[in-house]
Specification:
Length: 287
């Protein structure tokens, strides 16, 4: 458990703003309710704001950024492309000292943008490794972050106060903190998240429609990520382009090896490859 007086930050006294009250931001608000002094929720979607107010997910819900002047911690919980649009606008609304945390699925471009902010912003990147198929505040869950890996990516200018703030938040919502560089994060997530989305999408697109009645649990599981809204994924793919392209090349090489051995009826080698894959899978899931 984090010492709540560490480095001068106490979560119980924090006035936290969350921009983006969808699944991630809404779940975070629900998990933090009662653990900080006040919660300000911001969203451009009127029904979301109405739901946030009706369910008391936050203390204040608004689309007006002028209320950002009342907070001392701001969490950006929108898709990557929107985070990148919001960051340059923040100095117009925030003149006070403010800890800024983003939850973007890629880090390098976001960190670079945050690094351009004035010194009154105490910045640190973060990315929780969790989620659900169904998005939106209506599907938010206070337990979403429980036992999830929550990556933080400090910058050179990140202060001890900003780091204390994010670690206290992570502890309060029951997640596990992992620290790494933005570059290492983006390289890893290209393989563990972004490539699987593309493979799932390609699989769903490849299936002839006349075969739809014959799909089973295996196909449904393998193609599930294709249901992710494309507008959310485009920003992720574009902001992590080189790492994703590298992951695609590595996967293509693996698939080509399987194809070549099947084409040449080299079943001994094919069985060896499939056995290696099975062992790799078991090692991954039992990690």
């Amino acid at each position: 458990m984090v010492n709540q007086m560490e480095d001068g930050f106490r979560l119980g006294n924090a006035k936290i703003g969350i921009i983006g009250l969808g699944l991630m931001g809404g779940s975070l608000a629900k998990a933090l309710k009662g653990k900080c002094e006040s919660l300000f929720g911001f969203d451009t979607h009127l029904p979301t704001l109405q739901l946030a107010t009706a369910t008391q997910t936050v203390h204040y819900a608004s689309s007006d950024f002028s209320s950002l002047s009342k907070i001392n911690v701001l969490i950006l919980a929108t898709p990557v492309n929107i985070i990148l649009d919001i960051i340059p606008r923040l100095p117009s609304f925030i003149k006070q000292n403010c800890i800024l945390i983003d939850l973007g699925s890629t880090k390098k471009l976001i960190i670079e943008s945050m690094n351009q902010l004035p010194e009154n912003f105490e910045i640190i990147g973060a990315h929780p490794i969790c989620g659900k198929e169904k998005l939106g505040l209506e599907n938010a869950d206070a337990n979403l972050y429980q036992s999830a890996q929550f990556i933080i990516t400090p910058l050179e200018r990140t202060t001890s106060i900003a780091k204390s703030a994010v670690t206290q938040i992570i502890s309060a919502i029951g997640a596990n903190c992992i620290e790494m560089s933005a570059e290492a994060h983006d390289h890893a997530l290209a393989f563990t998240s972004h490539l699987p989305f593309l493979l799932s999408s390609a699989l769903a697109k490849t299936l002839p429609k006349e075969f739809a009645n014959f799909i089973g649990p295996g196909f449904r599981s393998a193609s599930r990520l294709a249901g992710t809204p494309s507008h959310m994924m485009l920003g992720i793919l574009g902001s992590n382009k080189e790492n994703v392209l590298n992951a695609i090349r590595v996967f293509r090489n693996s698939l080509s090896e399987i194809e070549e051995n099947l084409q040449n009826e080299n079943y001994v080698q094919l069985e060896k490859i499939l056995h290696q894959s099975q062992s790799a899978y078991q090692e991954i899931v039992n990690h």
